[in-house]
Structures are given as C-alpha cells and as structure tokens.
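Consider the tokenized backbone below.
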C-alpha cells in the first residue's frame, strides 16, 4: 500500500510492529490534484524515499490515476528541460502517458474500510474477493467517502516487511521484558569481540542471576515473578550506559555487554551500580519486595578469546558470588575455573552428605559484655567432606540454598542442636541460650512452624532456650504472613534475633512490629572499626536504635582488643568473635566451658572477671 511505505515501521509500546489502520495510513499521503505541476509533486518524492506512489484525484476528489515514483521520475528526467520544469502541469504529463499509466494501474472495485481497518484486513479482502492480481484499488469508507488508493504490490511488500519485522522481533527480543534475548545478545557479543580484536580493545560481559528468584516465584506466583523480572530488567536498563546491551538470557538470568571499556574497572563500576540498584524495594502487584543479584564478570580477550567460553566463565564467576553469600559481583579468575568444575558435583555430594551424616555443628560462645559471662552459643554447620576435608558453610550453604537442600539440612541443624543442648544439660553444663541460623527458604516452607514444633517435642528441648537467627531478607516477604509466623514461634517460646544486621535493605519499620529481641551487628561493621570512623557512627546509630526499641545488641566478629573496647564504649550488650572464642565442636566446647568456669572460680577468688 502506497502510503504505508512512507510511514516508517514503528514498534508499539508492546514492542511489536504497529498495525496501522488504512485511515491512519491515508492521512499520511495527500492525494495529488490532477492539475498539480511537476514542481509541486516532485519534491514529495524527493523528501520521502519510501513513498512509491501517490493517488491522483480530479476536481471532485475522485481518483483518476496513480503516479508511480519510478515512472514519474524516469519520465520526468527524460523529458526534463529548463522550459518544461515549472511550466508543464501534471495533467499535461499524464496527458502524454495517460493511457499507459491508467493501463498499468487499473482502478478496481472499491474496497470498503472503516476507521479500524488494518492492512491485514485489506489484504484479506483482496484475497477473499480473488483480487490477488489487482495492482491497485480505490479505498472508500463505509459512508462512501473516498479514502485513497491501495497499491497491490506495495500492500504485499508492506505486509511482508511487517511480518519480517515481527519475526525478527520475536526471534531477537524477549517477549516478557522486551529486551534483547540470548540470540541477539550473542550476535552483539560476537560482533563486539570481533571489533575489539581489530582495535585492540576490550569487551566486558556481566552475567547476572537474581538471587533466590525461584523461591519468590514459587511462593508469590508466576504472575508476580514475571512482573518482578520486568521490573528488574527496567532497573538494569536504568543503570547501564546507552551503548551497553542489556539482555535476558532466560529464566532469571540477565547479561550486560559493555563494548569499548577502558579496563575491567569499568565493568566493576557498572556491576556495583547494578547490585546497588536492587537496594530499593520493588512495588509489584501491591506488594513490596526486595531482591538482590549476583554478577560474574568476564573480559574479552583477557579471560578468553572464545566468545561462548567467555559466557560460561562469567557464569562461573557469578556462581562463586552465589556460593559466597550472593548479592555482589566478582571477576573471573584462574581460581574460578577449578571452582566451576567442582560446582555440579558439589550439589550431588551435598545430597549424599545428608544420607551419610557428614555434617557436624560447631558452637561459638556469645558473651555478655557487662558480666563477662557466656550467655549463649551459636550453632554453626560444618561439612566433613569425604575427600575435601572440613568445609565451612561459605563453601556450600549457597549451593544448598539454590538447590533447595537447605530445607532438609536446616531441619537436621535444628534437631542436632536441640539434641546437643539436652546432652549438655545432662552433662551438668549450664542451660545456655542456643542460637540456630534459619535460612529464608527454610522459613518460607508452608509447614515450617509444624516442623519446628515436631522437632521440639521429639528432642524434648524447652523451646525457650532456643533462638532463631533470621536475616532481613527472610522478613522481607509478605509482611502479614511473616508477622503471623513470628507470632507463632514466639507462642511456642522460641526467641528471635536478626542476624547480619545492617547488610539488608529493608525498611526499619518492621523492627517494632516483629517480636525480635536481639540485633546482631554484621561483622563487616565491626571489622577494623578502630580505623573506620564511618563504621563507628553506624554502630553507634544501630545501638541507639536498638535501645529505643528495647532490643539487645550483639556485635559479631570481634577479633581485636581495640574492637572489643569500642563495643564496650558503644554499649553493645553482647559480643561474639574469635578474640573471645572460635567456633568449636560440641565436645571441645563443653571442655572449654568447664575449663573457663573453673578458671573464673579461681579468678573470682582473686578479683575481677573479664571477657
Ligand atoms: P553468621 O550466622 O553470621 O555466623 C557468624 C560467622 O562468623 C560464622 O562463620 C563464624 O565462624 C564467623 N565468625 C565469628 N567470629 C568471627 C571473627 O571474629 N572473625 C571472623 N572472620 N569470623 C567470625 P561460619 O561458621 O563460616 O558461618 C558463615 C555463615 O554461614 C553464617 O553466618 C550463617 O549465615 C551461615 N550458616 C552457618 N551455619 C548455618 C546453618 O546451620 N544454617 C544456615 N542456614 N546457615 C548457616
Ligand atoms: Mg548467625
Ligand atoms: Mg551474622
């Protein structure tokens, strides 16, 4: 269709090519009056390269012919001369070629349209009325007003072009988020790497995975999950530079391609911005949710000269971030290679570890700062791996969470900690508070409360000795459900504390709503605090906040005397850290506690007690 050619194919908001109505298209091409001069008509063809033909109308606006760009331009240039140009009218031009032109573009039966008729409709009318060989036709509206002329070839061309654009779009863009998909991304990546090798440049590839997305999707539904992915894509786009390609590789995996970077620091800077951008909660379907992302970075050609290997290296670096606690970024390094080889076997081995009873708990004491007494103990899991030896949770908790195995492992931890607590009581040790870490996925199991109640009765432990350490991310979902569950735990008698406080991104509003008794200040704020004035202010503020809400404060990771002294100054209630005691196996802990008690009894006889 003639006018359609002049209208560029546009992508609608939905990302698909627009399907213009005939009326819309015809508005774009003003018919040429038969009396028009060449001078009046020619500039329009010059100005609109896509305009192939224009309808010619008589004084009553009845279509009489079509000026075809090629015919017209060819004819015009052939007969062009200074005298002709500007003097001879179109009528005159048509006069000479009238029969040829009208013969070439016979005016067929009118095609009736209304305002909503699309090109596809017109095409269907042409096919249905067996007019497929029609070269052009007059379009009239239902009240018989002339609406323009369709040109058969153009119409077909237009439809093919649009279908092609649509197919191209579907093949290269993600239907949900409307950003490039894996195919387009790898095209661009290949192209960028070729360009970089020509110019001695570098290209960075950021592989992004949304942390715990599966759990959000499973617990809040796919509609929610989809909307969240769209919102995440939007944030990624906001942070990336205009020249970067942000793509969805599938599921909850995204990637960013950064061309012409000035070194890996550029990629790190973007990765940092992306991670930070997730701090703000998302408002999705009337809910507030916070997610974090893990990013692996690989740089071409530094990390690999082969593009597909580059992608898997960025993926491996991303997985390292997952395993070391998520919510961050990491560059690929030589160490990552061996890690990624191990990763798949690790998941299978974790399953086996439960069956083979390869986990143990270590216990780290918590001290009251004022009295110097051990007031609690935190159970920390270890894996005695058959070939790798002792593994700390940093090496496997991430995989356990990603694979869902943490639920069974978590059950084992609660049961084992309770069993140990009873054993200590039987051995005559004091009844200490026993803290157990609860993973967000474990907490979100619909039968979490029943499982805990069952474990309590099976192990015959007084629940009031038990404290669950929850993280802020656990409390971020579905506030009313969380409130109910915390209430039920409180009713059972279990105490609640907030672990790694200060590293989450939640609003502080929940602190006075939820029955939490203790805040554990994350060790990143405690570390080197004597040299970091900003962390001093943070801890001061956390303590002030906690006091105003009548919460106890525990400082984690106290390693030096200087740190301990400052925790006293800031009036933290309790401390936990290597300076005072490292995590110990159960037997070592009971021995240590007995020795300490004996020592304290001696000291008390001679004077003061110190942490
Ligand atoms: P967390 O709950 O914050 O535990 C404290 C971690 O800090 C422990 O590491 C502990 O050994 C370490 N730590 C304590 N004092 C110091 C210190 O002075 N300096 C340093 N550098 N580190 C100190 P661990 O045992 O490696 O556990 C790491 C994390 O793994 C825990 O952080 C917790 O989030 C998770 N985790 C441990 N056990 C379990 C478990 O049974 N279930 C779940 N879901 N997570 C667990
Ligand atoms: Mg903890
Ligand atoms: Mg902690």
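A designed sequence for it:
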């Amino acid at each position: 269709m003639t006018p359609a050619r002049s209208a560029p194919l546009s992508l609608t908001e939905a990302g698909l090519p627009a399907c213009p109505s005939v009326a819309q298209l015809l508005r774009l091409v003003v018919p040429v009056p038969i009396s028009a001069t060449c001078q009046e008509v020619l500039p329009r063809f010059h100005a609109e390269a896509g305009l192939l033909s224009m309808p010619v109308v008589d004084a009553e606006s009845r279509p009489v012919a079509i000026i075809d760009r090629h015919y017209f331009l060819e004819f015009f240039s052939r007969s062009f001369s200074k005298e002709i140009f500007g003097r001879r009218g179109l009528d005159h031009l048509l006069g000479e070629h009238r029969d040829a032109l009208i013969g070439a573009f016979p005016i067929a039966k009118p095609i009736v349209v209304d305002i909503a008729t699309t090109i596809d409709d017109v095409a269907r009318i042409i096919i249905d009325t067996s007019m497929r060989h029609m070269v052009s036709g007059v379009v009239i509206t239902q009240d018989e007003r002339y609406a323009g002329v369709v040109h058969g070839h153009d119409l077909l061309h237009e439809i093919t072009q649009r279908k092609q654009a649509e197919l191209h779009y579907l093949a290269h863009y993600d239907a949900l988020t409307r950003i490039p998909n894996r195919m387009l991304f790898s095209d661009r990546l290949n192209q960028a790497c070729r360009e970089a090798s020509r110019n001695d440049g570098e290209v960075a590839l950021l592989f992004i995975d949304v942390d715990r997305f599966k759990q959000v999707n499973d617990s809040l539904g796919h509609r929610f999950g989809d909307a969240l992915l769209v919102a995440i894509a939007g944030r990624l786009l906001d942070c990336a530079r205009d020249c970067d390609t942000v793509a969805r590789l599938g599921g909850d995996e995204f990637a960013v391609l950064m061309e012409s970077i000035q070194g890996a620091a550029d990629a790190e800077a973007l990765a940092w911005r992306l991670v930070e951008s997730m701090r703000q909660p998302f408002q999705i379907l009337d809910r507030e949710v916070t997610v974090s992302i893990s990013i692996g970075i690989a740089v071409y050609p530094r990390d690999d000269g082969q593009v597909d290997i580059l992608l898997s290296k960025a993926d491996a670096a991303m997985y390292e971030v997952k395993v070391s606690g998520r919510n961050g970024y990491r560059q690929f390094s030589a160490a990552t290679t061996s890690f990624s080889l191990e990763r798949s076997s690790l998941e299978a081995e974790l399953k086996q570890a439960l069956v083979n009873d390869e986990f143990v708990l270590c216990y780290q004491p918590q001290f009251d700062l004022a009295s110097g007494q051990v007031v609690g103990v935190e159970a920390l899991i270890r894996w005695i791996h058959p070939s790798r030896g002792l593994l700390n949770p940093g090496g496997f908790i991430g995989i356990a969470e990603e694979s869902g195995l943490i639920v069974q492992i978590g059950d084992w931890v609660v049961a084992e900690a309770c069993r140990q607590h009873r054993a200590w009581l039987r051995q005559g040790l004091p009844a200490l508070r026993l803290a157990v870490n609860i993973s967000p996925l474990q907490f979100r199991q619909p039968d979490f409360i029943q499982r805990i109640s069952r474990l309590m009765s099976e192990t015959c432990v007084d629940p009031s000795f038990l404290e669950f350490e929850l993280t802020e991310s656990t409390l971020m979902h579905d506030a009313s459900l969380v409130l109910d569950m915390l209430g039920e735990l409180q009713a059972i008698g279990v105490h609640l504390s907030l672990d790694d406080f200060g590293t989450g991104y939640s609003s502080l509003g929940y602190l006075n709503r939820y029955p939490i008794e203790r805040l554990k200040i994350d060790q990143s704020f405690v570390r080197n605090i004597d040299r970091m004035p900003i962390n001093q202010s943070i801890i001061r503020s956390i303590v002030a906040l906690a006091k105003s809400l009548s919460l106890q404060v525990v400082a984690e990771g106290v390693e030096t005397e200087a740190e301990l002294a400052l925790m006293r100054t800031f009036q933290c209630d309790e401390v936990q850290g290597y300076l005072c005691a490292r995590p110990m196996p159960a037997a070592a802990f009971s021995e240590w506690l007995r020795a300490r008690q004996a020592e304290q009894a001696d000291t008390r006889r001679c004077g003061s007690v110190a942490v």
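The chain has three domains: 22-162, 173-337, 345-600.
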